[in-house]
Amino acid sequence: MKRLLMYFLFGALNYGIISAQSADSQAPASTQNPEFVEAMTGVVADIQGAQFGEDLQPFANTLERIAAAEPKEWLPSYWGAFCYMMKSFTEPVVEKKDQYLEKAEKLVTTADELNPNNDEVEVLKANIASARMAVDPMNRWQKYVPIAGAAIAKAKAINPLNPRIALHEAQGVFYTPEAYGGGKAKALPMIKGTIELFKAFKPTSPMMPNWGQDAAEYMLGEAQK
Amino acid sequence: MKHLLLVLPLVLVFLQHSLGQTVISGKVTDRKGEPLFGASIAIKGSYDGATSDSLGHFSFRTRKKDSVTISASYLGYEPEFQTLVLKGGNLDLHFKLKDAFNELNAVTITAGIFEASDSKRMVMLRPMDIVTTAGAGADITAVMQLLPGSNRVGEQEGLFVRGGAAYETKTVIDGMIVQNPFFSSTPDVPQRGRFTPFMFKGMAFSTGGYSAQYGQALSSVLLLDTQDKVSDQSSTNIVAHLAGVGIGYTHKGAISGQLYYSNLAPFLKLVKTNIDFVKPPQGMGGSLTLNENLSKNSVLKMYVTYSDGGNTLGLPNYDDGGKIYQFKLRNRNLFTNNTYKVFFDEGKWIWQSGFSYSNNIDDITIGTTPGDRRDERSQVRSVLKRLWGKNQENSVLAGLEYHNIRNSNLFDTYKASLEENYSAAFAETEFYLLTKLALRVGLRGEYTSILDRYNASPRFSAAYKTSQYSQVSFAMGQFYQTPEKNYLYTNRSLGYELANHFILNYQWSKSDRTFRVEAFDKEYKNLVREYQTTFDPNPYRFPTGATDNSGFGNAYGFDVFFRDKKTVRLGDFWVTYSYLNTSRLFQNYPVEAAPIFSTTHNFSVVYKQFIPKISSNVGITYTYTSGRPYYDAASPVFLGDRTKSFQNVSIAASHIRSIKGSWLVFFMTLDNVLGRKNEFGFRYSSDGQSRFPVIPVTYRTLFFGVSMNISRHADVPKESKLDL
């Protein structure tokens, strides 16, 4: 999970503080065949257990095969998008970063079409938009900050208790310099709140998203220094 | 036999096993046979598959039987499919993938063009770079002058491209020519551009060989594309600096209004000027922008601006021992530019139409003599574009333009006026023969009533990708321009001036490092020549001699450009060198010579650094241009003398701060830090006996101000794009 920590170092460059909205709904659970559950559970465990810098391409490929065989399932596309987003953080060549993020955008769009109005998909959309911006923040914030902001606002409306929403907001403040209205001190209460949400969060199945807690704990350690 | 009996059971077991499973192994490579690491191999409709290793090898087992489709795919390549029948046993497959068309591997035509855009990846400069460049004063043209192909002419505004005069460059906004892109000219005092860089999402500066979509520019076009609607946010912006105040409000990202008042009096009190401002420049103006996506497939952009300003200069009378006379100017300018763009048939067709109107009124008094100027231009333009190809990478377009232009110039009681009806039709196609080879072929035809002549000019460009990060590009074409209005006032029988361009370019670009080198040759024909008994070196004179199209000229040379945004974190460094060899016989030149605005060597270094700790951006720019030709009646060679070189070191800094959800940006620049006394040439008395140096308005300039942005959401203002 060190990889996830690094991700936030690389990718967290969101300046916007998005206004809160509230509503509550949960994505419907789908009925799945055992082969699918087994394959997905395995690959999701591999992804979440991977070390930073480890190539996620084999997992992305496995997910793509599962997605092709199970065209109605959103999770393979969701996790595929996640893999390509992570690949963009370790890729040194700027042009290739964008190539991975374009692929991640395509996959998250597919996930969104298969499972509309899902908070996890919205959060991932926001993270991909932030990653897009992080490639060239100076010239891209204008386009991607509103996209990330809208996705986070939508996720909040669906499930305000999703800890990855709070995480995305906390990292936005954490990685914004104090002079720009951010800073570690200001982020501290948000990080604490995020960790509380992570403690309370139980994924409905092992193949559901459950990433980010380590990143929040890393930020907590840094903010308390 | 014994042996066989022993082996048989093993064979049977093996057969049984392999009948149930097929082992599929093989290799994935690109077309050249280079292995692809991380390619995905899949059996359609099943979970079975594998990922290729670093040698491109893969192997997996499947229980699938009968006819299956096996695919190999890799990001950036076209997937390949093989349909075969599985019967158990071993299968060995080789996939050779072809490059998919994408921005990474497709070539882009770069000869003669410097793009500054946030939409394309292969860019040189982005809009934000304009305002952070030291010594450019947030002026688009001033930054373009730091790019290869253009040189700074200290006493006059405009872009002088590769030996071309300022009038040979046209400024184009959303496809339409801007009649008066600069604030009105006063003698030896260069003016700023009228437009702020924040209006534009992209800027492309052509150094020649440009597209058939544009015309009436012998040397270059500066293409400005206005911002699209990016968000629904409302914000207020207030700016105050040494020369004025301004306020702007944007409503829901769609409608925006700006008002400003400028007065250079405080600035002129602070710095020592070399020119006597009897009445400091003062002005006010405003603009209104509407930018709305009317539907998912259509965009309407409307822009109107009006400004009213003036000043009075005390200028030396060269014939009267430098005694001061007053040059009084009041400029009123109305400009509107409107475009409507619609996409249909899933974006395969794009139709863009525009209307623009410009009215520029200069009330001028020179001493006691009136010298008013009027320029009015109405233009309509319509372009239909069709995209085709798998990735819609190819295009063909056709368009029409019509302009009505009215100019007049009063001098005392003599009034010259012109009315011109200009129309143009053009067609152009840009297509890929290979992913690595792109061609652009265009043709433009023009007719203008004032010359009563037609012209047709072909344009051609090609680009070939030589490696993953490098390419060569070539451009050529014919470029016609109607002679300058000052000549047409007295002679309507003139014909078009013509320039032929040839440009060869090599570019290497990888991860925020760019190197490019470009060689060019430009041949001028049919330039207007004026016959005088004795040469009058006054550039502001009104032509009085007989004129014809017998002038000619040429310019050749090369430029080198290197930019690095990678080596120093949050730093940006670029260096430019241009070599120019040019001569021409035109205007009232008695013999062929290097024109007074040309310089042989042009060198500049720009460095910027963002320092997050103090949230500040600092920058330094150094410019060197070799001496300019100047006229000396005593010299045996016409324009054979050179001024001393021009050198300038400028610094700029800005600091950003967030206070209660609004953003404050403090900025300051110091131009010509070393206070070098640059000279641009000389002015002469009419008998040629006494001369006066042309010098900058100030030797050293200090300028500072503050800008504040208040958004409803605590969002980032554009100024904060300084970097992060």
Describe the structure using short key phrases.
heterodimer; A: 225 residues; Serine Threonine Protein Phosphatase 5, Tetratricopeptide repeat; 10 helices; disordered N terminus; B: 724 residues; mainly beta; Immunoglobulin-like; Maltoporin, Chain A; 2 domains; 22-stranded antiparallel β-barrel; 57% strand; disordered C terminus
- What structural category arises from helix and sheet content of chain A? mainly alpha
Given this structure, which CATH class of chain A is correct? Mainly Alpha
Mean pLDDT of chain A: 83
The total number of structural domains of chain A is 1
The CATH architecture term of the largest domain in chain B is Beta Barrel
How many helical stretches of chain B? 5
Give me the count of strands of chain B.
Answer: 42
Q: Indicate the CATH architecture of chain A.
A: Alpha Horseshoe
Calculate the mean pLDDT score of chain B and round it: 88
CATH superfamily grouping of chain A: Tetratricopeptide repeat domain
The main β sheet of chain B shows up as: 22 strands, antiparallel, barrel
* CA-CA gap between termini of chain B: 81 Å
Number of helices of chain A: 10
The residue ranges of chain A in which pLDDT falls below 50 over 5 or more consecutive positions are: 1-30
